[in-house]
Protein backbone atom coordinates (compact mmCIF):
# COMPACT_ATOMS: atom_id res chain seq x y z
CA UNK A 1 0.00 0.00 0.00
CA UNK A 2 1.26 3.45 -0.91
CA UNK A 3 2.18 5.90 1.84
CA UNK A 4 -0.40 8.35 0.46
CA UNK A 5 -3.12 5.70 0.76
CA UNK A 6 -2.19 5.01 4.38
CA UNK A 7 -2.35 8.74 5.17
CA UNK A 8 -5.78 8.94 3.56
CA UNK A 9 -7.05 5.98 5.60
CA UNK A 10 -5.77 7.54 8.82
CA UNK A 11 -7.49 10.83 7.97
CA UNK A 12 -10.72 9.02 7.19
CA UNK A 13 -10.47 7.13 10.48
CA UNK A 14 -9.89 10.38 12.37
CA UNK A 15 -12.97 11.89 10.72
CA UNK A 16 -15.06 8.88 11.71
CA UNK A 17 -13.82 9.17 15.29
CA UNK A 18 -14.73 12.86 15.30
CA UNK A 19 -18.29 12.00 14.23
CA UNK A 20 -18.37 9.33 16.91
CA UNK A 21 -17.30 11.79 19.60
CA UNK A 22 -20.07 14.17 18.55
CA UNK A 23 -22.60 11.32 18.64
CA UNK A 24 -21.52 10.24 22.11
CA UNK A 25 -21.63 13.78 23.48
CA UNK A 26 -25.15 14.45 22.16
CA UNK A 27 -27.76 14.57 24.90
CA UNK A 28 -30.38 12.02 23.93
CA UNK A 29 -32.96 13.31 26.42
CA UNK A 30 -33.84 16.53 24.63
CA UNK A 31 -36.04 19.21 26.20
CA UNK A 32 -38.98 18.13 24.07
CA UNK A 33 -38.57 14.53 25.13
CA UNK A 34 -38.50 15.41 28.82
CA UNK A 35 -41.29 18.02 28.67
CA UNK A 36 -43.69 15.83 26.72
CA UNK A 37 -43.03 12.41 28.20
CA UNK A 38 -41.54 12.68 31.70
CA UNK A 39 -44.94 12.88 33.35
CA UNK A 40 -46.27 9.93 31.39
CA UNK A 41 -43.24 7.80 32.29
CA UNK A 42 -44.19 8.02 35.97
CA UNK A 43 -47.78 7.08 35.29
CA UNK A 44 -47.10 3.85 33.41
CA UNK A 45 -48.25 0.90 35.56
CA UNK A 46 -45.72 -1.72 36.63
CA UNK A 47 -47.69 -4.31 34.67
CA UNK A 48 -47.23 -2.29 31.49
CA UNK A 49 -43.50 -1.92 32.15
CA UNK A 50 -43.15 -5.66 32.57
CA UNK A 51 -45.19 -6.35 29.44
CA UNK A 52 -42.97 -4.10 27.31
CA UNK A 53 -39.77 -5.64 28.64
CA UNK A 54 -41.12 -9.12 27.92
CA UNK A 55 -42.18 -8.11 24.41
CA UNK A 56 -38.74 -6.72 23.59
CA UNK A 57 -36.99 -9.73 25.07
CA UNK A 58 -39.10 -12.16 23.05
CA UNK A 59 -38.51 -10.08 19.93
CA UNK A 60 -34.72 -10.20 20.36
CA UNK A 61 -34.66 -13.95 20.93
CA UNK A 62 -36.97 -14.58 17.99
CA UNK A 63 -34.76 -12.58 15.62
CA UNK A 64 -31.62 -14.43 16.71
CA UNK A 65 -33.29 -17.85 16.62
CA UNK A 66 -35.55 -17.62 13.58
CA UNK A 67 -35.85 -14.06 12.37
CA UNK A 68 -32.69 -13.56 10.31
CA UNK A 69 -34.07 -15.52 7.38
CA UNK A 70 -37.31 -13.55 7.48
CA UNK A 71 -35.43 -10.26 7.60
CA UNK A 72 -33.32 -11.29 4.60
CA UNK A 73 -36.50 -11.88 2.61
CA UNK A 74 -37.58 -8.26 3.16
CA UNK A 75 -34.44 -6.78 1.63
CA UNK A 76 -32.23 -7.10 -1.45
CA UNK A 77 -29.34 -8.76 0.36
CA UNK A 78 -28.04 -10.49 -2.77
CA UNK A 79 -27.95 -7.15 -4.54
CA UNK A 80 -26.07 -5.57 -1.62
CA UNK A 81 -23.49 -8.37 -1.69
CA UNK A 82 -23.09 -7.97 -5.45
CA UNK A 83 -22.53 -4.23 -4.99
CA UNK A 84 -19.99 -4.99 -2.26
CA UNK A 85 -18.03 -7.17 -4.69
CA UNK A 86 -17.96 -4.31 -7.22
CA UNK A 87 -16.92 -1.81 -4.55
CA UNK A 88 -14.11 -4.09 -3.40
CA UNK A 89 -12.88 -4.41 -6.98
CA UNK A 90 -12.82 -0.63 -7.32
CA UNK A 91 -10.88 -0.41 -4.05
CA UNK A 92 -8.28 -2.87 -5.35
CA UNK A 93 -7.64 -0.53 -8.26
CA UNK A 94 -6.59 2.15 -5.80
CA UNK A 95 -7.53 3.62 -2.43
CA UNK A 96 -8.76 7.18 -2.80
CA UNK A 97 -11.65 9.33 -1.59
CA UNK A 98 -13.92 8.14 -4.39
CA UNK A 99 -13.33 4.41 -3.88
CA UNK A 100 -13.85 4.79 -0.13
CA UNK A 101 -16.96 6.93 -0.51
CA UNK A 102 -18.82 4.26 -2.49
CA UNK A 103 -18.90 2.12 0.66
CA UNK A 104 -20.39 5.02 2.64
CA UNK A 105 -22.97 5.67 -0.07
CA UNK A 106 -24.03 2.01 -0.09
CA UNK A 107 -24.45 1.96 3.70
CA UNK A 108 -26.24 5.33 3.73
CA UNK A 109 -28.76 4.40 1.05
CA UNK A 110 -29.85 1.32 2.98
CA UNK A 111 -30.39 3.10 6.31
CA UNK A 112 -32.49 5.84 4.67
CA UNK A 113 -34.94 3.26 3.32
CA UNK A 114 -35.26 1.53 6.68
CA UNK A 115 -35.91 4.80 8.54
CA UNK A 116 -38.74 5.57 6.12
CA UNK A 117 -40.16 2.08 6.57
CA UNK A 118 -40.13 2.47 10.35
CA UNK A 119 -42.03 5.77 10.17
CA UNK A 120 -44.75 4.25 7.98
CA UNK A 121 -44.93 1.18 10.19
CA UNK A 122 -45.18 3.27 13.36
CA UNK A 123 -47.85 5.59 11.97
CA UNK A 124 -49.99 2.78 10.59
CA UNK A 125 -49.91 0.70 13.74
CA UNK A 126 -50.30 3.74 15.98
CA UNK A 127 -53.50 4.78 14.21
CA UNK A 128 -55.03 1.42 15.10
CA UNK A 129 -54.01 1.78 18.72
CA UNK A 130 -51.36 -0.92 18.60
CA UNK A 131 -48.29 -0.78 20.85
CA UNK A 132 -47.02 -4.19 21.90
CA UNK A 133 -47.76 -6.15 18.68
CA UNK A 134 -45.70 -3.59 16.78
CA UNK A 135 -42.47 -4.31 18.68
CA UNK A 136 -41.27 -7.38 16.69
CA UNK A 137 -41.79 -5.45 13.45
CA UNK A 138 -39.96 -2.43 14.86
CA UNK A 139 -37.04 -4.61 15.99
CA UNK A 140 -36.99 -6.25 12.57
CA UNK A 141 -36.51 -2.84 10.95
CA UNK A 142 -33.65 -2.05 13.34
CA UNK A 143 -31.85 -5.33 12.71
CA UNK A 144 -32.45 -5.11 8.96
CA UNK A 145 -30.82 -1.68 8.94
CA UNK A 146 -27.78 -2.92 10.89
CA UNK A 147 -27.45 -6.05 8.74
CA UNK A 148 -27.45 -4.01 5.53
CA UNK A 149 -24.90 -1.54 6.89
CA UNK A 150 -22.68 -4.43 8.00
CA UNK A 151 -22.77 -6.06 4.56
CA UNK A 152 -22.11 -2.74 2.83
CA UNK A 153 -18.79 -2.51 4.67
CA UNK A 154 -18.00 -6.20 4.16
CA UNK A 155 -18.94 -7.66 7.54
CA UNK A 156 -20.98 -10.72 8.47
CA UNK A 157 -24.00 -10.44 10.77
CA UNK A 158 -25.07 -14.02 11.44
CA UNK A 159 -22.24 -15.43 13.58
CA UNK A 160 -22.45 -15.33 17.38
CA UNK A 161 -19.52 -12.92 17.48
CA UNK A 162 -21.11 -10.47 15.05
CA UNK A 163 -24.45 -10.77 16.81
CA UNK A 164 -22.72 -9.81 20.03
CA UNK A 165 -21.18 -6.87 18.20
CA UNK A 166 -24.62 -5.80 16.96
CA UNK A 167 -25.92 -5.93 20.53
CA UNK A 168 -23.02 -3.71 21.61
CA UNK A 169 -24.03 -1.16 18.97
CA UNK A 170 -27.63 -1.12 20.20
CA UNK A 171 -26.39 -0.69 23.77
CA UNK A 172 -24.59 2.50 22.76
CA UNK A 173 -27.80 4.01 21.39
CA UNK A 174 -29.83 2.85 24.40
CA UNK A 175 -27.33 4.07 27.02
CA UNK A 176 -27.57 7.42 28.75
CA UNK A 177 -24.87 10.10 28.90
CA UNK A 178 -21.61 8.66 30.34
CA UNK A 179 -22.90 5.14 29.75
CA UNK A 180 -22.64 5.75 26.00
CA UNK A 181 -18.88 6.26 26.23
CA UNK A 182 -18.41 3.04 28.22
CA UNK A 183 -20.62 1.08 25.82
CA UNK A 184 -18.75 2.53 22.84
CA UNK A 185 -15.40 1.49 24.27
CA UNK A 186 -16.67 -2.05 24.90
CA UNK A 187 -17.99 -2.18 21.33
CA UNK A 188 -14.58 -1.17 19.94
CA UNK A 189 -12.79 -3.78 22.06
CA UNK A 190 -15.13 -6.51 20.87
CA UNK A 191 -14.79 -5.48 17.23
CA UNK A 192 -10.99 -5.51 17.50
CA UNK A 193 -11.01 -8.98 19.07
CA UNK A 194 -13.29 -10.31 16.34
CA UNK A 195 -11.17 -8.86 13.55
CA UNK A 196 -7.96 -10.21 15.14
CA UNK A 197 -9.46 -13.68 15.57
CA UNK A 198 -9.51 -13.47 19.38
CA UNK A 199 -13.18 -14.32 19.90
CA UNK A 200 -14.17 -15.32 23.47
CA UNK A 201 -15.99 -18.65 23.78
CA UNK A 202 -18.89 -17.01 25.60
CA UNK A 203 -19.08 -14.05 23.21
CA UNK A 204 -22.89 -14.24 23.04
CA UNK A 205 -25.00 -15.26 26.01
CA UNK A 206 -28.69 -15.19 26.79
CA UNK A 207 -27.90 -12.70 29.52
CA UNK A 208 -26.34 -10.35 26.95
CA UNK A 209 -29.48 -10.56 24.82
CA UNK A 210 -31.75 -9.89 27.81
CA UNK A 211 -29.62 -6.99 29.03
CA UNK A 212 -29.67 -5.32 25.62
CA UNK A 213 -33.40 -5.87 25.09
CA UNK A 214 -34.17 -4.45 28.54
CA UNK A 215 -31.98 -1.40 27.90
CA UNK A 216 -33.74 -0.69 24.63
CA UNK A 217 -37.16 -1.36 26.16
CA UNK A 218 -36.46 1.11 28.95
CA UNK A 219 -35.26 3.78 26.55
CA UNK A 220 -38.25 3.36 24.25
CA UNK A 221 -40.77 2.82 27.02
CA UNK A 222 -42.72 6.04 26.84
CA UNK A 223 -42.75 6.28 23.05
CA UNK A 224 -44.00 2.73 22.58
CA UNK A 225 -46.55 3.08 25.41
CA UNK A 226 -47.93 6.25 23.82
CA UNK A 227 -48.09 4.45 20.49
CA UNK A 228 -50.53 2.07 22.17
CA UNK A 229 -52.91 5.03 22.59
CA UNK A 230 -54.83 5.67 19.38
CA UNK A 231 -54.80 9.49 19.55
CA UNK A 232 -51.04 9.62 19.96
CA UNK A 233 -50.20 7.16 17.17
CA UNK A 234 -48.36 9.77 15.12
CA UNK A 235 -46.00 10.44 18.04
CA UNK A 236 -45.05 6.76 18.07
CA UNK A 237 -44.19 7.04 14.37
CA UNK A 238 -41.85 9.96 15.03
CA UNK A 239 -40.04 8.02 17.73
CA UNK A 240 -39.72 4.94 15.53
CA UNK A 241 -37.95 7.06 12.92
CA UNK A 242 -35.82 8.71 15.59
CA UNK A 243 -34.62 5.42 17.05
CA UNK A 244 -33.89 3.69 13.76
CA UNK A 245 -31.99 6.82 12.73
CA UNK A 246 -30.07 6.90 16.03
CA UNK A 247 -29.05 3.24 15.86
CA UNK A 248 -28.25 3.35 12.14
CA UNK A 249 -26.01 6.38 12.66
CA UNK A 250 -23.78 4.76 15.26
CA UNK A 251 -23.81 1.48 13.30
CA UNK A 252 -22.42 3.27 10.23
CA UNK A 253 -19.72 4.92 12.33
CA UNK A 254 -18.67 1.69 14.03
CA UNK A 255 -18.62 -0.44 10.88
CA UNK A 256 -16.75 2.25 8.96
CA UNK A 257 -14.12 2.39 11.69
CA UNK A 258 -13.70 -1.40 11.53
CA UNK A 259 -13.53 -1.23 7.74
CA UNK A 260 -10.81 1.44 7.75
CA UNK A 261 -8.88 -0.20 10.59
CA UNK A 262 -8.94 -3.48 8.68
CA UNK A 263 -7.47 -1.84 5.57
CA UNK A 264 -4.70 -0.29 7.65
CA UNK A 265 -4.05 -3.54 9.49
CA UNK A 266 -3.62 -5.42 6.21
CA UNK A 267 -1.50 -2.71 4.58
Summarize the structure.
With 267 residues, the protein is mainly alpha-helical. It has helices spanning 3-25, 31-43, 46-73, 77-93, 97-127, 135-152, 160-174, 178-195, 206-227, 233-265.
Structure write-up:
This protein is mainly alpha-helical. It has one domain (3-265). The protein is built from ten helices and no strands. It has helices at 3-25, 31-43, 46-73, 77-93, 97-127, 135-152, 160-174, 178-195, 206-227, 233-265. The N and C termini lie close together (6 Å). The model is unreliable at 28-35, 111-130 and 230-236 (pLDDT under 50).
Layout of SSEs?
Elements: H1 3-25, H2 31-43, H3 46-73, H4 77-93, H5 97-127, H6 135-152, H7 160-174, H8 178-195, H9 206-227, H10 233-265
Helix pairs in contact: 1-10, 3-6, 3-9, 4-5, 5-6, 5-10, 6-10, 7-8, 7-9, 7-10, 9-10
Strand content: under 5%
Helix fraction by DSSP (H/I, runs of at least 4): over 70%
What class do helices, strands and sheet pairing give?
mainly alpha
Quaternary state of this entry equals single chain
Amino acid sequence: MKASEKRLLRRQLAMAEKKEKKYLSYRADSKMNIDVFSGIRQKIPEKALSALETAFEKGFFFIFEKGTGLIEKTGNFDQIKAQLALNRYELQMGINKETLKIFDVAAGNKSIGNKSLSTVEGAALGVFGIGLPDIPVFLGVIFKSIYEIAISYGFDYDSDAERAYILSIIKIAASKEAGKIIASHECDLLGEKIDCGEIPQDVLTEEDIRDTSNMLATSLLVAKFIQGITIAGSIGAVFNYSWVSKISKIAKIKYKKRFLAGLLRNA
